[in-house]
Specification:
Length: 230
């Protein structure tokens, strides 16, 4: 698999050679230990988060806070999601049969995208703000993440042309989810999204042979899902 974060890919040394994030390995390990204490999380997700240099997804002035369990501003009124949220959403998405292709709605910084790309063969991610998508593209390219297709546009109704998806992960909150999103979900596919306006809850919808199964995963605090291009 052409992904630099896959365990056993031997890319650790090339990352080291490029000087990417090696100085922060200990702070990253500490963050992951904290996350594991806070919530039951998939060990595969924790492994990946131990490797991905989150500080490269925020501006330099905020890099020293990149391994705190907090969301941070990324410009344009948007935020990089809190590490615990990324870990919980990704863990919830992985539960079930293996994922081949996943759609992320709301690329933002591209950090969640990188986490997904290390775990899933094919990731499609859509972002409505062109400048954020361009920055995410640069970081993912520098990290040699090659199994991601980034699209600029409104993903509030998904991206039907590239579906169906085994997983859909929405990183912005909508009061209601467009029915088209569920149509793009393959059988056994999971959709994870924060739903609500003033009060949000993280929800998982699983497509079964007989219909959709819905679970509430907990409270959430996300920026709103907006319509149209940014
Ligand atoms: N996963 C990202 C989260 C960024 S915040 C990260 O951790 O960095 C949510 C993102 O969703 C913002 O970048 C916002 O611009 C984007 N967004 C909001 N509405 C959208 C829509 N309709 N289509 C695509 N992206 C959208």
């Amino acid at each position: 698999m052409s992904n630099p974060f896959h365990a056993g890919s031997g890319s650790g040394s090339s990352q080291q050679a490029a000087g990417i994030g090696m100085t922060s390995q200990r702070t990253r390990d500490r963050l992951v230990e904290l996350l594991a204490q806070l919530s039951p999380l998939d060990p595969r997700v924790l492994d990946v988060m131990r490797q991905i240099p989150r500080h490269l997804f925020v501006e330099e002035a905020l890099a020293s806070r990149a391994y705190d369990n907090v969301s941070l501003p990324i410009g344009h009124g948007q935020t990089i999601s809190q590490p615990l949220t990324v870990a919980q959403m990704t863990s919830a998405l992985l539960q079930g049969p293996p994922l081949r292709r996943v759609l992320e709605i709301g690329t933002g910084s591209g950090y969640q995208t990188a986490v997904l790309a290390a775990l899933v063969p094919e990731v499609v991610s859509i972002e409505r703000i062109g400048a954020l998508a361009a920055q995410a593209r640069r970081v993912l390219r520098d990290l040699r993440v090659r199994n991601v297709a980034l699209v600029v546009g409104d993903g509030s109704q998904g991206l039907p042309g590239k579906g169906p998806y085994d997983g859909i992960l929405i990183t912005a909150a909508a009061a209601t989810l467009a029915p088209q999103l569920f149509e793009q979900l393959a059988e056994d596919g999971r959709l994870i999204a924060p739903v609500g306006s003033s009060e949000q809850a993280l929800r998982r919808f699983t497509r079964t042979a007989t219909g959709l199964h819905e679970e509430r995963l907990g409270a959430a605090h996300f920026v709103p899902l907006r319509r149209g291009r940014g």
